[in-house]
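quick one: phosphoenolpyruvate bound model?
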Amino acid sequence: MKIAGIVRLEDISRLCPLISRGTDSFAGESAETRKVQVGPVCFGGPRPVVIAGPCSVESFEQTLEVARAVKAAGADMLRGGAFKPRTSPHDFQGLGLEGLRILREVSRQTGLPVVTEVMDARQIEPVSEHADMLQIGSRNMQNYTLLVEAGRSGKPVLLKRGMAANLCEWLGAAEYVAKEGNFNIVLCERGIKAYPAGEYSRYVLDLNVIPAVQEYSFLPIIVDPSHATGVSAMVEPASRAAVEFGCHGLIIEVASDRPGAPKPMCDAAQAIGPATLARIVEFVAAHSVEPLKVSAHAV
Ligand code: PEP
Ligand code: MN
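yep, here:
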């Protein structure tokens, strides 16, 4: 029986023909994972990519200090929010355009490519000018106007999973970007709201979705262990587990642990220090991407 409004996994290739495996729409490449290039960084290749940096850009000094630590730890790319989606409008909203300028300059000084969030279609132009990759956050995964404009921008897109989105909805969002001719899409699992979310961790890290994504789509998928757990002590083991599940990379929040360094204004409880990041990078460097061989149909 087909229940109206319920989308089943079998429907994915019909809903998302452009990004599905097993359809010929992507010039015969659908059997292979798509390689998404961001400057010198390649997502979807044999090596998992590590993106790291502060939750938000708070000052030039803070961003440069963290970026240097990220570089020294051996990570590949810098993250940092200039436009922050906060629960309360009274909380720090990010430095906006000034934050973008800081990111550009810090990227120039460290040689790390930068990913940063766009919350609204009007931000795409300035963000595209200053950053190497556009991040579409969990809260905007189904902002279809934003997805279309991100597609049209031609910039690589990091598409986070909506915190309550199922696989069909997430891949449907990616299809909007692809429909504009932009296949430079990297998916990011960042934790979902399930019953115990918020009780002993911030969200529930759905590692099980990694092999499912890899079965249905040729797009690379990375994991954000920082937002998924919300607990700094869980970030390292969650990163290792995500790599064991065959993801193509990680995006991790880092803060300075230098005595006297200001406490992050956003997501301080989940920030790890540079030494922990260095251990994660070492673990990642010792592992190549090994997709798990499971069939969701067999469940
Ligand atoms: C972020 O990466 O800074 C962020 C806000 O993440 P998410 O959209 O996953 O909550
Ligand atoms: Mn954050």
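The CA atoms of residues 256 and 273 lie 6 Å apart.
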